[in-house]
Amino acid sequence: MQRLLFGEDKFHFVAPFKSQLLKWIGNKQRFAHEIAAYFPTEYGTYFEPFLGGGGVLGTIAPPKAVASDVFKPLMEIWQALHDDPETLKRWYAERWYALMSKDKIAEYERIKACYNERPNGADLVFLCRSCYGGVVRFRRADGYMSTPCGVHKPISPRAFARRVDKWHARTRGVTFLCLDYQEAMAKPRCGDLVYCDPPYTHTQSILYGAQGFSLKRLFDTIAQCKSRGVYVALSIDGTKKSGNLVCNLPIPEGLFEREVLVNCGRSMLKRFQMEGQSLETEVVADRLLLTY
Ligand SMILES: C[S@@+](CC[C@H](N)C(=O)[O-])C[C@H]1O[C@@H](n2cnc3c(N)ncnc32)[C@H](O)[C@@H]1O
Predict the structure, then answer these.
(1) Are 22 and 125 in contact (CB under 8 A)?
(2) In the chain, helix, strand, coil percent, each to 5?
(3) What angle do CA 159, 23, 48 make, to 5 degrees?
(4) Which partner for 288 in 54, 58, 260, 280 could form a disulfide, CB atoms 3.0-4.6 Å apart?
(5) What is the dihedral of CA 192, 84, 177, 236, to 10 degrees?
(6) Residue 209: how many CB atoms within 10 A of its CB?
(7) 69 CB under 6 A from ligand 1?
(8) How many percent of the chain have pLDDT more than 90?
(9) 126 touches ligand 1 (CB under 6 Å)
(10) Ligand 1 centre and the CA of 242: distance in Å?
(11) Which residues, at least 6 apart from 234, have a Cβ–Cβ distance to it below 8 Å?
């Protein structure tokens, strides 16, 4: 359980959910329960407009939600999970057996070439679990998936199928959509909750499928949500080397009420007006900004 260093702001216990379905850069599953602990205790529909590998979605298993991402092959996987989980299992199993019964690297490269020829969820679900380090990387210029074959043995079709069943049950109430976040964030109404985990890093070095990203546009969209009475939680900017809360993000004055540091062994919450003050040295943390 986490400890708050500043203020008495409420947080609540959320059980960790360890079973990962997809491997995805920036996946939050390992500490999703820490993030969700700061969600309001009551809200209407849950929205996750930068879904990726869905670490937070899977952890909270919301009864009613809209989960979206702009990356079409990824959303094909989520839609299959929801509408036709047996097909999702088959996509994985077919590729796994082919890989195991042939020259592993040659078969991996064949699947990768198929994906790059025509990006699709069936190849992507297997590539993300079998690629090197589980890090699916895309070339900025054209979205080419470039990660080589991993050295590990991808989980068996049976183990993958068990995860599909678990995730299917946990996401029954979710509508999965392929949308730009701005369109997705126009949907929530007063009392709904939006959790944003955008593709921003301090170095801008991690890229998802050749997309660029404007943080300013995101802050404007969050401000519009807030003005409608929507709760917004924003994860941002993974790693810090010093306790100074670094990085000069163009955060509009008054947009967020609180900031929490999570995934640093324990979490720290500070009043937003303490911006820039050092909490401690050598903190490695994810920032969570809350409009409530
Ligand atoms: C940091 S990842 C999310 C990781 C996720 N929280 C998890 O646990 O796996 C960011 C995601 O934002 C998506 N994305 C990038 N630009 C977007 C946009 N304009 N609209 C919606 N999604 C976008 C990327 O495709 C990527 O999947």
Answers:
(1) yes
(2) 35, 15, 50
(3) 110
(4) 260
(5) 70
(6) 21
(7) yes
(8) 70
(9) no
(10) 26
(11) 195, 196, 197, 198, 218, 222, 256, 288, 289, 290
